[in-house]
Amino acid sequence: MIIYKEVCVGCGRCQPYCPTGAISFEDMKSVVDQDVCYECGNCLRVAICPVEAIHESPQVYQYPRALRKYFSDPCATHAVTGIEGRGTEESKTNDVTERCGPGAVGVAIEVGRPTLGMGLEDIQRITRALARSGITEIEPQNPIHSMIADPDSEDLKAEMLKERVLRAIIELQITRARLADVLRTIKTVAAEVDSVFTLDVFTMLDPGLTIPQEVLDIIAAEGFTWQPNAKINMGLGRATDREIQ
Amino acid sequence: MTHSLHREGTIDSLERDYALFIYPARGFNYKGCAPKVRRLVEIVYQVGPVNMIATTLRRNMYSGVRPEEVLDSIKEGIRVFSVFNSREKIKEVLKRFKAADEGISIVVSGLIDRVREIALEIGLDPHTINISLGVHGDTGRLPPPDIRQFTTMCGHGMVSPILVRDVIRRVNRGKISPWEASLVLAKPCACGIYNPHRSAELLESLTPLYTVARR
Predict the structure, then answer these.
(1) A93 touches chain B (CB under 8 A)
(2) Distance (Å, rounded) from C-alpha B76 to C-alpha B30?
């Protein structure tokens, strides 16, 4: 994002809206620190500027800076997935797609959340650690999958590493038998990450909204605890498109 | 995507916070989904959400968007996100969704025990769960948990911790009410699941305890 200095009246009203604090005063005008800005567009979208001094940066769609927008702006459609958002539909349509079937679990590692942001090097730290542990099942429809240059080391493309985004999700589809290895690896690499990440696991339920005991036992054995709130697919969906049936 | 499973807060506060998602599945039931989603959105409006957004407009309930505009914007592939502030309301909307039987995926984000009770009471058999194992990494860099109760109510992290501190300061000075402050906080939320009722409750209880710097 950019604030045109000649237009800005220096009221500072835009500053608290920036999730990462990229806007500050300089010579009595608000300016955007281009290194810190994630191009999320929040300052523009809230329409708080009384003189319309805030605009998209001219280089916002130039690669690799465009990654900032695709991963940070909730209204931007990602070039890889074609959907708004940083991940896939994962658990939300699983009653229809059954992408994560019986005996499988999904794991999502959302780096930069909550509201801290991160350099893409943090993603590489995690993908590398997963690769070292032999875990390479990154969901093919996840944008991160297309950013990997070397499938063996799971290193990202070099030109991306200096970019910063508000958040990005590494999604894995694995068998339940692999969950312990994945959680152990994540626990270890957490100490190397500069930013923060949220961790979640999704699985098909047993009848009566019962979380499979096998999954809970693995989570507990690896020293993790689960929150009392969760996202629950209520099982009301069904496939209807003719080509699928 | 919506980060609703990582909403932070006390159990008591989360008792009045249920996000609801209407989610057609690409390649599975996109075709012809628009009238089905429209009927579901009409049900949502009838029960009374405290916030809502359609991905076709990306303007939440407090942006001045009218229900007719939302309904008229519905097209193939739309997703609709909303939030309810009571167990009774989320139960009612799910009961009506079950009766409507439109075949579109419905996701509820809330306390597992409450959703389990509701599912049992109305005869639903939930399919998949996404559980949060918390926040990891350099967590010392995060704002304190009190502030995160507000920021995590936006699924995309668009509610800035700086803005939360800013409105707390303004409420403390008597410049705005907790409700007005909550509408300020709801405005940036492009996923429509910021719960301003819960936010106002939190502000009422927290602001007397706070002396906050702007940053």
Answers:
(1) yes
(2) 6
Are B134 and A225 spatial neighbours (Cβ–Cβ below 8 Å)? yes
Measured between beta carbons, the chain B residues lying within 8 angstroms of A183 are 133
Task: Report the candidate in B135, B138, B194, B139 with the shortest Cα–Cα distance to residue B167.
Answer: B194
Question: How far apart are alpha carbons A194 and A111 in whole angstroms?
Answer: 10
B131 forms beta bridges with: A201, A230
Note the pLDDT tens digit of each residue in B23-45: 999 889 989 999 999 999 999 99
- Of all residues in chain B, the percent with pLDDT exceeding 70 is 97
Distance CA B108, CA B170 (A): 33
- Asked casually if ipTM beats, i.e. exceeds, 0.90, the reply is yes
Evaluate whether B3 touches B134 at the Cβ level (below 8 Å).
no
For residue B103, what is the nearest residue in chain A, using CA coordinates? A237
Q: Tokens representing A82?
A: 């074609």
Distance between CA atoms of A82 and A79, rounded to whole angstroms?
6
Residues of A in contact with B24 (CB under 8 A): 93
Distant-in-sequence, close-in-space partners of B207: CB < 8 Å, separation ≥ 6 = B168, B171, B172, B178
Q: Do B25 and A219 touch (CB under 8 A)?
A: no
- Asked whether B94 and B106 are in contact (CB, 8 A), the reply is yes
Could you give the CA distance from residue A76 to residue A84 in angstroms, rounded to a whole number?
6
Test A226 with B131 for CB contact under 8 angstroms: yes
Radius of gyration of chain B (CA): 18
Tell me how close the Cα of A27 comes to any Cα of chain B, in angstroms. Answer: 19
Reading the block at residue A130, the tokens are 């997963």
